[in-house]
Every structure is written in structure tokens, then in C-alpha cells.
Fold this protein.
Amino acid sequence: MELDERKLKILKSIIRNYLETGEPVGSRTISKDPELQLSSATIRNEMADLEEMGLIMQPHTSAGRIPTDQGYRLYVDQLMEDSKRETKEANQLLIERVDRVELLLKNLAKILASNTNYATLISAPQSRHNKLKFIQLSKVDERKVLAVIMMEGNVVRNSILDAVDEVDEQVMLKMNLLLNTMLTGLSIDEISLGLIAKLKEEAGEYSHIVEKVLNAISETIRAEENDPQIYTSGATNIFKYPELSDGEKASELLSTFEEKHVLNELITTSMQQNNHEIQIYIGNESPVETMKDCSVVTANYELGDGLQGIIGIVGPKRMDYEKVVSTLRTLMQQLDDIYNKK
Amino acid sequence: MELDERKLKILKSIIRNYLETGEPVGSRTISKDPELQLSSATIRNEMADLEEMGLIMQPHTSAGRIPTDQGYRLYVDQLMEDSKRETKEANQLLIERVDRVELLLKNLAKILASNTNYATLISAPQSRHNKLKFIQLSKVDERKVLAVIMMEGNVVRNSILDAVDEVDEQVMLKMNLLLNTMLTGLSIDEISLGLIAKLKEEAGEYSHIVEKVLNAISETIRAEENDPQIYTSGATNIFKYPELSDGEKASELLSTFEEKHVLNELITTSMQQNNHEIQIYIGNESPVETMKDCSVVTANYELGDGLQGIIGIVGPKRMDYEKVVSTLRTLMQQLDDIYNKK
DNA sequence: GTTAGCACTCCATTAAAACGAGTGCTAACA
DNA sequence: TGTTAGCACTCGTTTTAATGGAGTGCTAAC
């Protein structure tokens, strides 16, 4: 069967309608579309074809049609138009350059959630390829040392180390100097075994402290990778969509947002896309099991210095794709303007 | 009307029953209680009295009775027994002394939530009366300075300052020394105007940096007070209780846990209690509007060095008060053993 | 003071009926 | 050959009625 112009128009009309109302749409409704001057009977015939092609379906015999996942897919791939709708909302995102990336991302999540009325998640940048800016050791008390590790993007991590024996202020100063001259500017991946050996040699009798510090660094980074920071907001927005808000489903979905670590898969999958295009996961396409009744729109952001992560919007399958995509695009543009062109 | 021994026994039996089943309990059910050798008719008479006293009520004419808020109140105040139930759960809390208070509290929240099957919230210790351990300034780049502020309890705060003009390494060292000698060991409240003036004088030409640092400190602290850290866990547990999990209610309650700042009132109210007793808020007694259908059990914890905050368990009114209270008591005991006696 | 007995209330469940939105099919039409 | 009006049919939803049962309050007897 051929998917001609008219069928596409009808499909588009059906999906548009369904996105708005959330109700199955019947042939009569479509026949009223000014773009399609056809009787309901004709529409019905076409609908039967579209159903056969797996693009739409009936919840039950005497109901209107709703899009299938395949139908949505076709819609977002081919039928969706670039939204020119009031970008005023997007403009209001009004991002200033913020020193602390974490703060920025938290706010961003909040703003996106309240702008879109969907749930939002943002992954903090992965630090693996991120460069050390400096390390600062300070004495906390007799046996404890605070290591402050700062990476590009002004991401700060603290870690408290147990020293084997009492720490001397002088030693500390030396260590600071040593660590910084040797390590600053390197990414975690670039700290090789050879370098470590050399570092220890230089440290002489204090090599055990060097070891602790290096462990702390790698552990801090590793911990972050296994359990990366994820900022979420507006999870309770799902209650605005009846198809998601009944008991079981809502519970599962909200747990996902509460536990957060389950979101990792979505983040890694989405990061693996090599391009900077916006991606859309419909229903089961999502790597997260509990989102099988949702759609997820993700974008890779970059804040310069190779700091990158993903932003995801989670909503019902009948989410307003155009608005979400356009909001994300505008946002990416803005971030790019601010952080990359400088 | 008098509330004699028998009436109390009956009330207790009714509430016990209702806590377990969540269903209104009828006279026949109570007449089977081995502790009460009475016919259902007699129970009915007594029930009528209890209802008149406002301790129980009927959802509708031909239903059994459920406790009123007043009834619950009387129960937790007088009728509740100390639970000797398997404290093994509580023992499993197995707390080790953790260096980072934040980490400890986060874990605690998780453990409590999964142990009780209710929602848990823990407020991070308020820093106002908390003493500074040390301040460390480090140069980030030409115009930026990282201030690391460490307080008792090993609570670390970072803040990035904009310097007016380029920062000299030498100056930094001086500032560090100056700030630490003058401020270490003081609480925020103890940093008086006089002290600040003196500090500025000592700093001479760099007094503007001192000012910035002080501002940063007080702002950091203030920000924390307005929006104190609150760790929550198990908010989705509320779906286990039908009376809380229908649409509107669940949504409101979960939003409360998502927004968190609404929980502040609960925390301040609970902190104001001068004693270290466990407190129970039933329904409208709770300072948080959205918890009017819940009960909240709170405890003030103290981790030594005056680090204190509150732990709260939020569940349906028919929560297992005995278990919750006993769990919290055990926990407090353990924390006390570890942190205060040393 | 306690209890058996009974009429009564009212919610919950089930069954039946009415409704209506939407379909598929057929036959007529351009 | 594509389009459309007409109509019987399907099936979920809503409405109404009927039935059952849990539990009560009251009365009268023990």
C-alpha cells in the first residue's frame, strides 16, 4: 500500500488532534479539518488503510483512532514542523553565565520543567575527560586532611583523607606545590602509572600521602561516574496526564525519578549518539523500562572546555513534540552562544 | 461521661485493629477480642459513648468505626505500648561513624524509608550556631578566588568569589593566615561588627577582599538557612497506602517532597521543641498543610559539637506508631552512643 | 449491667437498560 | 474510479434498578 500525500495529511491531522485532546479521534472530526475537504466516509476508508499500515489503531471497535508508536515515529521524523510559537517562553529562560555549573543545571531543570509541564532531568557533566584545575590540601585536625579538587567548569569536589601519622603544616605546603605542578591541566585519564611513580619519588618519605590523594581523586571521579549527579525537576508534572497518573504507573515512574540511578542508562545511551542532534525516544524505544508509556526528548549540551551532559524531557507519548524540541533547540543555542563563542 | 478502663480497652482494640487493616471496625470484630469478653451489643453501647466523646466516628451510618484525630492523639499519648518487636531491623541500621555528615544523613534517610515503608526526611544540621573550623582561599584564575569554608561536623562549603583586581599569591597566603587566626573557632553569630572592623584594619589595603570573604561566608550560611539541605527518601512509599495514593492527594504530597522548601516549617516547628522527646503530629496538627491526611513522627538528633537537626517519618494517620517510635528511639540511642559519648 | 433479637440504614456489587460515538459496508453518484 | 450518503452494527460508558450484607440502634428480656 502506498503512503500518498493525502494519507500523510490525514495522519498528521489525526496525531495533531490527539496530541491536543488525548482522546481517540474519529472520522467526523477529521472531515472538519479545513485542509481536507473530504467526507467522513472517505476519511474512514483512508483510516482503515493507515491502520493496516500500523500507524494508527483503535482502542476498541467503536472508538476513534489513536497513533501507534510507529505513527508517532513517522510524525516526529517527517511530519513535524518547526515551531514558531511564541518563543517568549524560551527567551525567558534568560541564562546568565553562572560560575557553578551545578547551580546552573539545577536551575535549568526547574525552568524547563515549569515551562514545558513535563518532567526534566539533566546529567551533570562527566568528569572523566575533564581537566584538573588545581588541588588543595588543608589540615582539618591531627589526623585528617581535606583535599579540595577543582576541575574545569569550576566543579569542586571535597574529600576528607585519613593520614597515617600526624600531618605537618610544612609537608602540606610542599605536597600542595608538588601535586599542582605535576597534575594541573591533566585529565583523569592522563594521569599515568609512570607519572604516579615519578610523583611518589619526588614526594620521598611522604609518598604514602601522595598515594592517598591520588586514590581520593580517582575515587571521587569514579564514584561520580557510577553514580553521576543527575538533577531532576517537575517529576510530579506527570499527574497532569491521566494516562500516566494512575496508581501503578505513576508510582513506578516517580520511583525512577526518586532513585535516579535508573536514569543512567538513558543518559549513557543518549550520550553515545555522536552528533548533537536532538533525539526522541518513543515508548519502548527508551532505554529505561519504566518509561515505556512515555516519550523522552534528549539533547546533548556542551558548556565549553568539553563539559558535556544531556538534558532530557520526559512526558506522555502525546507530548507536544514541537514545543519541546523547539524549546530545547533554543536552549542549546543560548548555551552555545554563552559558553562556546564567549 | 467517664472514660473508664473498659472504654479505653475497647478504644485501644478498635485502633489497633484499624491500624492493621485500614478498614472501619465493627462491634462484632471487637467482641471477639480475647481481652474483652463482651457481646457485640455491649460493645455497640460503649462505641456509641466513644463516638459521643469524639474519639471515633463512622464514615457512614452502617459502617464500623474509625479513629478520629482526637482518638489517635489519645492513643499515642496514653495507650501505646513500647514496642519490643524484633529490633533486628533497627540493629541492622548499623551505623558507622562517617566523616561526612551529609553522607551519613543521606544513608540514614534511605535506610529509614526502606525499614519503615514510610517517607522519610532529614534536615541537615543548622550551621548558625556551628563553629568555623577553617577557611581556605585559593586562586582559581586571574579574577576568581575559591573560598572553602569548613565547619564543625566537617561540613564543607565552597564559594567562588570575584576579585576586583588581579589576585596575588602572596596576598592570598596572608589572607588565609589572617582569616584563620581571627575567625577559627567562632560561630557565625559570634562574628561581630567590631571583629569585622578589626579584621579589615589588619588587612589594610586588601580589606575589600576580606569584605568579600565575609560576605561569602554569611551568604553561604544564610542561603543554607533559607533553603536548608533536606534529605528525603521513600516519598513514593505513599503509594502503598490507598488513602494517600489517589490522584490529587498523592500529587500534592509528592510535590511537597520534591520542592522540599515547604518542609521547612515542619523542621523549624519541630526544632523549637526544647526537649529531645519524640514528637507526633496527627493530621492537621502538622505545620505542613499538605500533610493533613498524614501523621508525622519527628525526633531531634544531635551528632555532638552542637550539630543538630530533625528526622521525620511521614505516613498515613494509621501508621504503625509503635514501630516508628521505637525505630527512631533506637536510632537516637545509637547516634548518641557513637557521637556523644565517643 | 448485659445480651439476644430485630428492624433499619446505607454502601457495594451486580445486572439490565439506554445512550451514543464511531465504524464498516453497500449502493448510488459524478 | 474515487467519493459520498445511508444504515446496521459494535462496544464502551453512563444510568437505573435490584440485591446482598455489614453494621447499627433500639427494645425487651435475663
